[in-house]
Amino acid sequence: MVQWLSATSSAPRRVGPADDRTTADDALRRIRAGESLLYGGDFQNARQLLAALGRRLTPRPPKGAPPAEAFRRERHRRREAHLLLNRLLVPVAAGWRIPLPRAPDVAEALAAALGPGPEGDGMLPLRELLGAVGAHQWRKGGVPVPALGARVHPHHGVFAPVRGEYAELIGAALAGRDLAGKLVFDVGTGTGVLAFLAARRGARVIATDSEPRAVACARENAGRLGLAGQVEVREADLFPEGQADLVLCNPPWIPADAHTPLERAVYDPGGRFLSRFVEGLAGHLAPGGEGWLVLSDLAERLGLREPGALEASFAAAGLRRVEARTAPAVHPRSKEQEDPLHEARAGEVTTLHVLRTA
Ligand SMILES: C[S@@+](CC[C@H](N)C(=O)[O-])C[C@H]1O[C@@H](n2cnc3c(N)ncnc32)[C@H](O)[C@@H]1O
């Protein structure tokens, strides 16, 4: 039996052959009809076929579309891309070898992303393979975090701190503070970047994440930075037990459905992470403790959250905001003129909300 190796797509119901003679139009017709195509030709031609299929899907929303409409259409387009493009498959042999002419050596990248390879024959969406190869470059090279004065190494599927605004906001707010003897929670730690900023100021940190990949990643990064003795990483839903002097959180910031488990770092279905965090925060603050929530206002700009609703939720949860520090968007996507959400992203503001019990 051929093993299904994907971590993000469900196993195909129907698989047919494709090769260097398969045209993009024919392939699109077949994948739209529910068939998955197992490529048997040249690997580089398979890549070209994937790119040609991508160009044939729903076009991007037109420039100038209202932000809420642009967001809705862009999410639809991405969902379609996820469902349809992941139906172009490549064979995988033992040791993560791709038995196709001109296939690169991807064994190290696939082992890092997906674990031990198949013992016999397997198959994998080509798109997922290419994503794993890209992610592996980041994992090896790391992402510089100026606020930390170091690099963190994101694993495949773990949120990479490429949006510098929030780490800078937290770093600036921590500057000059001595957290020796203090306990800090970092809720939804990802690579561990915020936990490390607090640990560097002397704190003992308990960092949580619900994704096992993130837990493994944060532990590895803590070790690389020599902070493993100070930062304990736990797999957990939101808060660890107990109360802390400081609770840090950079939550998924867009209240919309996540199409894949990997999207749960960015998309917060029903806004539930955020509402549960706000409702649970007061119960996890030690006397005199503070919660530091970093959040962009993209949701308000896209019409996904009513202006003022966040502040109202603080009050309803028995919290008062004692300080708000803001930063304009400087992350690379905010500069992308071709992005259909450019208008909303260009004006995006990230706020560090400093919260105490009322
Ligand atoms: C925007 S990322 C932030 C990651 C990291 N703190 C940073 O600032 O780079 C949100 C993180 O929350 C995690 N997450 C999502 N739902 C969670 C839950 N219910 N409990 C704990 N962590 C969760 C995601 O896996 C992701 O790592």
Description:
This protein has two domains: 3-138, no CATH class; 142-357, Vaccinia Virus protein VP39 (Rossmann fold, 3-Layer(aba) Sandwich). Helices cover 35% and strands 22% of the residues. The protein is built from twelve helices and 14 strands. The chain has helices at 24-32, 43-56, 67-85, 107-114, 126-141, 164-174, 193-199, 212-224, 272-281, 298-301, 309-316, 342-346, and strands spanning 3-4, 15-18, 36-39, 88-92, 122-125, 143-145, 150-152, 183-187, 204-209, 231-235, 244-249, 285-296, 319-328, 349-357. The strands form three sheets. It has a seven-stranded mixed sheet with strand order 10-9-8-11-12-14-13, sandwiched between helices. A five-stranded mixed sheet has the order 1-5-4-3-2. A two-stranded antiparallel sheet has the order 6-7. The mean pLDDT is 94. S-adenosylmethionine (SAM) binds at residues 159, 161, 166, 188-191, 193-194, 208-211, 214, 237-238, 250-252, 264-265, 273. S-adenosylmethionine binds at residues 159, 161, 166, 188-191, 193-194, 208-211, 214, 237-238, 250-252, 264-265, 273.
Low-pLDDT stretches are: none
CATH architecture classification of the largest domain: 3-Layer(aba) Sandwich
Compounds present? S-adenosylmethionine
Main structural class: alpha/beta
In the sheet with the most strands, the strands line up as 10-9-8-11-12-14-13
CATH class descriptor of the largest domain:
Alpha Beta
What's the average pLDDT?
94
Q: Spell out the CATH superfamily of the largest domain.
A: Vaccinia Virus protein VP39
Largest sheet: 7 strands, mixed
Question: Strand-residue fraction?
Answer: 15-25%
The radius of gyration over CA amounts to 22 Å
What's the total count of β strands? Answer: 14
Shape: globular
Helical percentage: 25-40%
**H/I helix tally:** 12
What is the succession of H and E elements?
EEHEHHEHEHEEHEHEHEEHEHHEHE
